[in-house]
Design brief:
Number of helices: 12
Helix content: 40-55%
Radius of gyration: 18 Å
Order of helices and strands: HEEHHHHHHHHHHEEH
Structural class: mainly alpha
Shape: globular
């Protein structure tokens, strides 16, 4: 059965990559979302391009040119003051900047020193990183976020050692903000799975040991509603070495793939109200949005499937 499953995964990943490459613009950008500030090219490009790092070797080679083009395109679009935002009209944010750094590093491109300097400005007194910088108006967008902090730390680790002050303080925040269920809450996403996957991936990459028993139980109790969430669950289980537990979800993903190679989108991204600090506890935390071009969803799925494929 394993050879057949591996062949199916290989085909699914290849078809998903075809879909993503087909939507890349001539300047290297991928564009998705329709939020109040408009569509996103910079954040979407950084996220999608970075997800392609996990592809099997043959598909990674096939995507290499597109990834380099995306990274160079982003470096040309960096704000004069450093960093990147949701798009070119919105101020820099830590999440977009961190993903852009990660994409550039994965493509062998070196971000400018001031890019990292700018990213440090998002660190809060508790060690975590906010999405936007505090500029005198305290609101929920300028406090530490458990779904942003691990991405920023991954970005810092492309240049600085684990023992550096920013990374060390950030790791303390990550460990302190794990819930009693062993998961992490998401500020910007409609599921704890986004934040949980990012934090588990970071801890695994750094070899930091935690008691994963409760985390595994909690993950297996999750009922993901979308392909995006199923993919995050798969990646989370892989970070816990729970390959066998992931297979039911993997089969769901391969069965849900559309004829064009993509996966259906659904409202997954939350524009959280600025007066809502714990959206997972609020009845009306903010509007939800889907990725209409299905780029975020599809890139997340093929990244998860690629992690499974690598362990077969």
């Amino acid at each position: 059965m394993i050879p057949e499953r591996k062949a199916l995964l290989r085909q699914s990943i290849a078809s998903g990559l075809d879909y993503i490459l087909g939507l890349q613009a001539a300047d290297g950008c991928w564009t998705d979302w329709e939020l109040p500030p408009g569509s996103s090219s910079t954040w979407t490009t950084a996220y999608v391009g970075y997800q392609l790092r996990s592809l099997p070797a043959d598909n990674r080679a096939r995507a290499a040119g597109a990834v380099r083009l995306a990274a160079r395109g982003l470096l040309e679009k960096q704000f004069a003051e450093g960093g990147w935002g949701f798009n070119e009209t919105v101020e820099p944010d830590a999440d977009s900047t961190a993903f852009a750094i990660l994409l550039a590093a994965s493509a062998g491109e070196a971000p400018l020193e001031e890019t990292y300097t700018r990213l440090v400005e998002f660190q809060c007194p508790d060690g975590g990183f906010s999405t936007y910088r505090f500029q005198g108006d305290r609101n929920s967008w300028v406090v530490s976020h458990a779904d942003v902090t691990p991405i920023v730390l991954f970005a810092f680790l492309t240049k600085y050692p684990r023992g550096s002050s920013a990374v060390s303080r950030g790791l303390d925040y990550v460990l302190q903000n794990r819930t009693s269920a062993g998961l992490w809450n998401s500020f910007w996403w409609d599921s704890c799975l986004y934040s949980t996957e990012a934090n588990l991936s970071l801890l695994r990459a750094l070899g930091i040991q935690i008691d994963t028993g409760e985390t595994r139980k909690s993950l297996l109790r999750e009922k993901p509603r979308t392909a995006y969430e199923i993919a995050l669950l798969v990646s989370s289980l892989i970070s816990l070495d729970s390959d066998a537990s992931a297979w039911e979800s993997v089969d769901q993903l391969t069965a849900q793939q559309q004829p064009d190679g993509s996966w259906k989108s659904a409202p997954i991204l939350r524009v959280t109200r600025r007066d809502c600090y714990e959206p997972w506890r609020c009845d009306n935390p903010g509007a939800l949005f889907a990725d209409p071009k299905r780029l975020f969803t599809s890139a997340t799925v093929i990244a998860a499937l690629s992690k499974v494929y690598a362990r077969m």
